[in-house]
Design brief:
The complex is a heterodimer. Chain A is mostly helical. Chain A contains one helix and no strands. Chain A has one domain. The radius of gyration of chain A is 16 Å and the shape is rod-shaped. Chain B is built from eight helices and no strands. Classes of the chains: A mainly alpha, B mainly alpha.
């Protein structure tokens, strides 16, 4: 990557990590809500 | 005309909106995954920044509707948008920083674009913290709505900051009034990524609204 690997993967990595965390938290919250309300 | 209006108002109720939100969220989630795979190799910074501003405007819109008409679903929409808006604002700042280091030689400068985007992140955090800090739900929703509406003034400041002040950040590459100053393949990829983030935002926001509906039942 011509010495720019840290910058490219640093940006992509954190972006998709955060999106993954948001989805995981949301799925967990949805599951809890469904369990308690049914 | 009257029948159409009745249908729209029918979906303004949390109970009737709940199943519709589930269907839309599933479709948008699938579309986001496909679009993300297609546009993955291109710019996430510009698409993330657009989303951070757009989500704030939509959040302020729902907050204003909730404040004006006292509709619970509007306040829920505003609350559901805030975490995703904060996420995209952080992504915009983070990826911008990783762009800035190799191109400008620094991770961060207190220039107008970067600072106003940072203020946007604080506005999202402030909105969520304010709602969480007040026990009475109605009061929390109204207080949050006021903050969201006042804070919307920051969005045009972010957008025009590169024109109003002498900034290190480059000017807009894409504009409605003139031809884009980038290659067509880059522009296409960027727009695909923006569309993917749109679909993702709709999906997670509607999933969060469904949780809020269940929690407040």
């Amino acid at each position: 990557m011509g010495g720019y690997g840290l910058y490219v993967w640093g940006a992509y990595g954190v972006t998709f990590l955060l999106i993954g965390v948001e989805i995981a938290l949301l799925v967990n919250r949805s599951r809890k809500c469904s369990e308690t309300k049914t | 005309m009257t029948a159409q209006s009745v249908k729209w108002f029918w979906y303004a109720s949390p109970q009737t909106f709940y199943p519709v939100a589930g269907v839309i969220a599933r479709w948008c989630g699938a579309a986001a995954a496909v679009l993300c795979a297609a546009g993955l190799y291109i710019d996430i910074h510009a698409a993330g920044t657009w989303m951070s501003m757009f989500i704030y405007v939509v959040m302020a819109f729902w907050a204003a509707i909730g404040l004006a008409f006292n509709t619970r679903l509007s306040h829920m929409m505003a609350s559901a948008l805030a975490p995703t808006g904060a996420l995209f604002t952080f992504i915009a700042l983070w990826t911008g920083s990783f762009w800035g280091k190799p191109t400008w030689g620094t991770w961060w400068v207190w220039d107008a674009r970067l600072t106003s985007e940072l203020i946007l992140l604080f506005l999202y955090f402030g909105f969520m913290a304010l709602q969480a800090a007040i026990d009475d739900r109605r009061r929390a929703e109204r207080a949050g709505a006021l903050l969201a509406i006042v804070g919307v003034v920051n969005v045009p400041i972010i957008y025009y900051s590169v024109q109003w002040w002498n900034t290190l950040h480059q000017g807009a590459s894409v504009s409605l009034t003139r031809a884009p100053s980038m290659a067509a393949t880059m522009l296409t990829g960027m727009l695909v990524m923006a569309l993917a983030f749109w679909m993702y935002s709709i999906a997670v926001t509607l999933l969060r609204v469904r949780c809020l509906i269940l929690e407040n039942r």
